[in-house]
Amino acid sequence: MRNLKKECLLKVEGVSKSFPGVQALSNVNFHLYSGEIVCLVGENGAGKTTLMKILSGAYKKDSGHIFVNGKEVEIENPHHAQKLGISIIYQEFNLTRNQSVAANIYSGREPIQKGIGKYFGFVDRKLMEENSQKLLERVSSKISPKSIVGKLSVAEQQTVEIVKALAVEAKIVIMDEPTATLGEKEVLTLFDTINSLKKQGIGIIFISHRLEEVFKISERIVVMRDGQLIGELKTSQATVEKVIQMMVGRSLTDFLHKIPAEIKDTVLEVRNLNRKGKVKNVNFILRSGEILGIAGLVGSGRSEIVRLLFGVDSKDDGEIFMGGKKLNIKSPKDAVRVGLAFVPEDRAFQGLVLKLSVVENIIMATLKSFSSFGWINKRKIKKISEKFVSRLSIRTPYLHQKVLHLSGGNQQKVVLAKWLISNPRVLIMDEPTRGIDIGAKSEIYALMNELAKNGVGIIMISSELPEVLGMSDRIMVVHEGEISAVLDRNEASQKLIMSYASGQGKEVV
Hints:
Layout: E1 8-19, E2 22-33, E3 37-41, H1 48-55, E4 63-68, E5 71-73, H2 78-83, E6 86-89, H3 101-105, H4 117-120, H5 125-138, H6 154-167, E7 172-176, H7 184-199, E8 203-207, H8 211-217, E9 220-225, E10 228-234, H9 240-248, E11 266-275, E12 279-287, E13 291-295, H10 302-309, E14 317-322, E15 325-326, H11 332-337, E16 340-343, H12 347-351, H13 358-362, E17 371-372, E18 375-376, H14 378-391, H15 408-420, E19 426-430, H16 438-453, E20 457-461, H17 465-471, E21 474-479, E22 482-488, H18 494-501
Parallel strand pairs: 3-8, 3-9, 6-7, 7-8, 13-20, 13-21, 16-19, 19-20
Antiparallel strand pairs: 1-2, 1-4, 4-5, 9-10, 11-12, 11-14, 14-15, 17-18, 21-22
């Protein structure tokens, strides 16, 4: 009879880590068994990523003990972590897009030809592709090892990252927000892959802010808050409310709360907006104080519509009116000038300059208003930055901290601060709460309510239907670049939205 006893792959005892002005981890204990999926949850800044970076060799602990396969180790660097059998897959992939799948899997470890080829250091591409094929088959993937990575879907690229971990014989795989950029079907494919790894005895540490996924994939849920391990629960015995309460230290049953605002005149009108192959004949209005949700499947054209509005992409045809006046938006600069603001889907690459400071990012879009005759008013900049750091509860040790070192939720708040300084009439928010914790989500929802109350028109794109249903006054559903329905919040439901999003619902005239 098969021995079902699980082996303790990883044990963390009393690990602490501090940075200047911040105690990131305090006396943390953690363990992981073979063939186990543990979900690590907590608000941004709770210490999850710091712990994982210690385990993967990116950071060194200040104190405590780490045991791998029962032996105490000092993890010196990422290469040493890999030799110990620990691999981490970050939300932003570490792949070379113009190379093949096989070349990425064996990057830095390419097999060398035998015979005369070894004297010239020639790579044995055939062996590399054969080995890659075997690894891909281990996760039931049909991706060709010869495929160019840049031509793969996001889900397929993620599979390549997982196979890279298998190639170094990882026994512990850490996944940091692996579903953040995936659609519903892609998430299911990822979960199949994760369960396949589990059956092979690999231990998985899964970090996610999406609690519905946490409950689907994990066996244990470990909760962190303020750098400490608060507790752990068997998933089968846990509830969403209990996990949230542990994460934030308070009950958050009603955190997704829409406060009705007075909806006034039309502030934005879009007529016959088109871009070949992306957006087709889009018409809609947005009123002052209204939150207009945009729903649709991944690739439906949701983001493409708002990119046209903001001048990021050029429209082929169509008219845009603000307050009844026709606009000529050819660039984001034109859009900002007339009172539009845009919080993009990808904050790291489109919304922020990560190597610049909090204050530099906050005043980036409105720098001209802080200068006269070529002189920048640093006192005014400091005052307005402090105001918005306080107003949005941005957690940063100081204004000149690089945004790179902030949590995802605080980075998102910096993007919001940047645009709120411009006093926009229309705020476009593309996936405003993606990859941030539930406490930060609650704060962003409260801000949206406040802005709507003050007469700002808000366009919100979200893949999370509870968010769309909870925060929108009306919901515009997009299918293959066209509007398939516009629903009032009182008539909308997840089932109805999905029927229109998939092209099965009755078209609204």
